[in-house]
Amino acid sequence: MASSVRQPWPLLLIVLLPSLATATVFDDNYVPSWGADGYHLVDQGTETRLTMDRTSGAGFRSRSTYGSGFFHMRIKVPGGYTAGVITAFYLASEAPYDGSDRDEVDFEFLGNVDGENITLQTNVFVNGDGDREQRLNLWFDPAADFHEYKILWNPYQLVILVDDVPIRVLRNLTWQVPEYEFPAKQMGVRASLWDGSDWATDGGRIKIDWGRAPFAAGFQGFDVDACANTSSTPCDSTDLWWNARRHRRLSVREQAAYEHVRRTYMNYDYCADKDRFQNGKVPVECSYTT
Question: Is 116 noted as a catalytic residue in this protein?
Answer without folding.
Answer: no
